[in-house]
Amino acid sequence: MKLQNQLIAAFTGLLLIIMAVTGYVIYSLILDLLIQDEQRQLEQKGEILVSVLNETYSTRQSMEQLNDFLKEQDLQLFLYDRKQNAVLQSTMSNQVVTGFFLNNDFSDTSEELWEFGNNKFVTSRIKFLPESLGIEMILLTPLTDLQLVQQDFIKRMLLVFLIGALIAILLSYFLTKKLVTPLSNLKLQLKKIENRKFNEVEPVVASGEIKEVAQSVYEMANELQRYINTQQTFFQNASHELKTPLMTIQGYAEGIKEKIFDDKEQEKGLEVMVSEVNRLKKIINEMILLAKLESEQSVYKRERIIVNDLITKVNDRLKPLMNEKHLRLDYKIEEEIYLYADEEKMLRALLNLCFNAVRHAKTLVQIHVTKHKNQVKITIEDDGEGISEELIPHIFQRFVKGKSGETGLGLAIARAIIEQSGGRIEVGNTHQGGAIFTVVFQPVNQ
């Protein structure tokens, strides 16, 4: 069964249960309300009648003259003498009076319903004044009259319930359709994702939680599409990067095998082959490292580290290269700062950023570490030519190389390490024109 039909069935079933319970309660209460209302009306009529009789007939002897007056009233009533436990007068026949007297206890003032034959009657008692006379008027109304009113009321109520239920079911149909339609559209978009048609996924118009789920699905499709595009670009670039040294090695190997080189060229070819093998080995090792960084959490051994010691290790490893290129390294740390990261891999990430800065710097490389507003910032800056605006959005992707770049994997590895350590990395150009990398972390307590 479809979800829409299930919702309509559930709503209709709940509505019927509520209506049944409500109808039963109303049916049970309406008769009591009708009896109370009828007793109140009888009491009002009786009080008026008794008031007239009290003014006209004030003694027991004069009560015997009431027969003609009472028969003129369109009421079912008794004049009952409590002291003698006898009916003095009645608007009904003697046979009916006798039947009532035998079937009911006239002296029981708590009994509100009397029985006669197969019928029941609602009663109301009004005392004559003075009460010492012991005479009271008992008025009656057949319960069947009230039951007819009750049945008429129930019929009207059922009609109202029926119309209300019909409107509610129609309303539930439109509401559930409004709810289910976005789910159906969402199912269609998920089917596109299943078939890898990520670029065909469209936003689903919805509201509430469904809107949030639909937005998540749409963002997931875009992310999957971006991932696939990145993977395709990666394989294209990887094949190109691997093909170049392999073709060089193959060319020299075939030349040496066919003895088309002299001794000097053969020696040079062997050196090129060794160099290309080392380059190929470096590319493969960095590709493996990057794959592990992005897929295996177990390679990270996070611990509390001192940033000051980390920067000192970076400085020690950069010195030989800086001296060789006649560059100056300027690093500054404001205070002793702690991070929670894998020290070995974080050292690798910072060295990759620094090696990149050294390749492009003219005279100076700067490393500054600051702590501000519960953030630790590590900036690595050079005074080179900077990064082109077209390259900045793609600089951390695999095999994206700037001018004088090597494998195109160093910055991608640095980004993966930093992000897996809970930080983020940004890149831009300084006002002087050089490149600046900013790494941001959350500090830990000392």
Automatic annotation (TrEMBL):
Location of the HAMP domain: 177-229
Reaction equations catalysed: ATP + protein L-histidine = ADP + protein N-phospho-L-histidine
Membrane topology type: Multi-pass membrane protein
Major localization listed first in the record, in broad terms: membrane
SUPFAM superfamilies assigned to the protein according to its UniProt record, in alphabetical order: ATPase domain of HSP90 chaperone/DNA topoisomerase II/histidine kinase (SSF55874), Homodimeric domain of signal transducing histidine kinase (SSF47384)
E.C. numbers: 2.7.13.3
Keywords, in A-Z order: ATP-binding, Cell membrane, Kinase, Membrane, Nucleotide-binding, Phosphoprotein, Transferase, Transmembrane, Transmembrane helix, Two-component regulatory system
GO MF terms held by the record: ATP binding; phosphorelay sensor kinase activity
EC top class named in words: transferase
UniProt-listed Pfam families: HATPase_c, HisKA
InterPro entries found in the cross-reference section: HAMP_dom (IPR003660), HATPase_C_sf (IPR036890), HATPase_dom (IPR003594), His_kinase_dom (IPR005467), HisK_dim/P_dom (IPR003661), HisK_dim/P_sf (IPR036097), HssS/ArlS-like (IPR050398), Sig_transdc_His_kin-like_C (IPR004358)
Chain ranges of the Histidine kinase domain: 237-445
Residues passing through the membrane, by range: 6-35, 157-175
Superkingdom of the source species: Bacteria
A GO term from the CC aspect: plasma membrane
Compartment list: Cell membrane
Name by which UniProt lists this protein: histidine kinase
Naturally occurring in which organism (per UniProt): Ornithinibacillus halophilus
